Every structure is written in C-alpha cells, then in structure tokens.
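Quarterly update from the structural biology core.
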Amino acid sequence: MGKCDICGKNGENLSLMAANHKKLGYIKVCSDCWEKLYTRNDFVGGSTGSSSSCPSCG
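Predicted structure, tokenized:
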C-alpha cells in the first residue's frame, strides 16, 4: 500500500504516480496532487509525460 508524499492519502485502491518535483526531488503523488503540481508548474522540465528517458518506455 502506497502513500502520497504530498497529502498523505493512502489506501489499497490508490494509484500513485512518480513525479520529479523542483524542490522535493522524486516523489510519489496521487492524481489530485499531481494535477495541482502540474498546474503550478512544480515539475522539473521534461521529467513527466511521454518524453521519458526510461529505456523501457521508449
């Protein structure tokens, strides 16, 4: 079971996403917090979305 690093929400059915925050570094966040962080432009540029540098993601 995971826990959102921003709001602390947790639960078995909670989906968490990885995010590279400008001040906090790599964190796991729920979809609500991800949307808020995205709107405030708190992500490191190029660290989210389909432009991943992960070799498995393409």
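The chain has one helix and two strands.
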